[in-house]
Amino acid sequence: MSGTSSSHAQLMWDEAVTGYDFGPGHPMDPVRLALTMRLVEAFELDRAVRVVSAPPAGESTLRLVHRPDYIAAVREASADPTSADTSYGLGTVDDPAFAGMHDAAALIAGQSVGAAEAVWRGEVPHAVNFAGGLHHAMPGAASGFCVYNDAALAIARLLELGAERVAYVDVDVHHGDGVQAAFWEDPRVLTISLHEHPQTLFPQTGWPTETGAPDAEGSAVNVALPAGTGDAGWLRAFHAVVPELLAAFRPQVLVTQHGADTHFEDPLAHLAVSLDAQRHVAAACHELAHRHADGRWVALGGGGYAVTDVVPRSWTHLVAIAADRPVDPASSVPDLWRSEVFRRTAQLGPLRMTDGREPEWRSFDESGYDPADRLDQAILATRKAVFPAHGLLP
Questions:
Q1: So what's the pLDDT on residue 199?
Q2: In angstroms, rounded to a whole number, what is the distance separating the alpha carbons of residues 305 and 381?
Q3: Could you tell me the CATH superfamily of domain 9-390?
Q4: Cα–Cα nearest to 155, from 13, 20, 257
Q5: Is-contact 270 227, C-beta < 8 A?
Q6: Strand, coil or helix: what is 364?
Q7: Residue 25: count of CB within 10 angstroms of its CB
Q8: Strands (DSSP E) found in 13-55
Q9: Whole-prediction pTM value?
């Protein structure tokens, strides 16, 4: 059931996005999307937002970011997965080709583009597509479970509609390399990525020295966090970099990517962040959109491979925050939803909407820089690399 048109937020959803399925045993199990939507419904958040489906991104939209020869290769691999051309990153271990791949990937891209259009046109202040955030796809190649880069396509569409400044904040555990690559030479787009250090994690990019092309100096921002960083460090880094840059850049729209794979239970990475800190950052992004972008906020999902325990709770909090109906972390998870988890995965779902943490962090500006602390070294490296380009002191 959809909410009324006076909703604070639009939730992009089409059950067919679960067709984005690389097959059994692949970490990116689409059950994480279905279970998230069922949890959103269990909390009746679908009544507090407008639930809308957008059409798949068409050829002209896809070409805003992707090369025509790559789109043709995706279509070909979709029709015959055995023909996948690995020179385009298709048919690999990370991105195995599957029947209908083009349609499923274009549908997810369409939801993010639709979210961006609704926000830019003033239909709603906030729009969420938790099926999106496929930030590794490159203009001419699939990469890291990502076929079409919906985040980059949403930003490109905003520029096409006349936006002059778009900020993108990516808190997935992996570097937002595809979005950075798409706008490397474009000073209209500020890309900020906080991620595990490239020395210890795919895609081995996202060094603080990656700051944009000469004509767009300071438009790419990378915070490379030491493996093992937990809530206090993650939040310290976020607050030491993101708010000041957004204040200086003055975006007209804020696009955020909320990969849940920073979590301590995630099997593919090495940060130690709790659900409670993820919820704090979602709320901070909401607040920053109101402070710096007239409330215009497009929020996307991303990675996250603890598919029953973490992803649905994290993104349900995201939807709730966008809807202005935040879920109390102490809330019990509805029994009906836990039954659904067991039915679909034979796992026991989590009991509460919290990990029981109360994240606290020390402000970088107030507590000062600790030269012996690897996290502070990472923060300072980023600030030194990009703050001067924005007229800020490192």
A1: 98
A2: 30
A3: Histone deacetylase domain (3.40.800.20)
A4: 257
A5: yes
A6: helix
A7: 6
A8: 50-52
A9: 0.97
Q: If residue 61 lies in a helix (H) or strand (E), which one and from where to where?
A: helix 59-62
Mean pLDDT of 295-318: 98
Sign of the C-alpha dihedral computed for residues 179, 113, 172 and 63 taken in this order: negative
Name the active-site residue from 136, 280, 286, 317.
Answer: 136
Question: In 3-state terms, what secondary structure has residue 119?
Answer: helix
The candidate with the shortest Cα–Cα distance to 272, out of 215, 322, 233, is 233
Q: What is the amino acid identity at position 251? A: P
* Burial of 318 (C-beta count, 10 Å sphere; 0-12/13-18/19+): buried
Q: Say whether 136 is catalytic.
A: yes
- The whole-angstrom distance between residue 303's C-alpha and the CA centroid of its chain comes to 7
62/55 Cα distance (integer angstroms) = 13
- 210 Ramachandran zone, left/alpha/beta (phi>0; psi -120 to 50): beta
**Is residue 260 within 8 Å of residue 314, measured between CB atoms?**
yes
User: What does residue 294 show for φ and ψ, rounded to 5 degrees?
Assistant: 55, 30
The structure tokens listed for 275 are 């659900």
| Tens of pLDDT, residues 50-108 | 999 999 999 999 999 999 999 999 999 999 999 999 999 999 999 999 999 999 999 99
Cα-flanking dihedrals φ and ψ of residue 143, to 5°? -160, 145
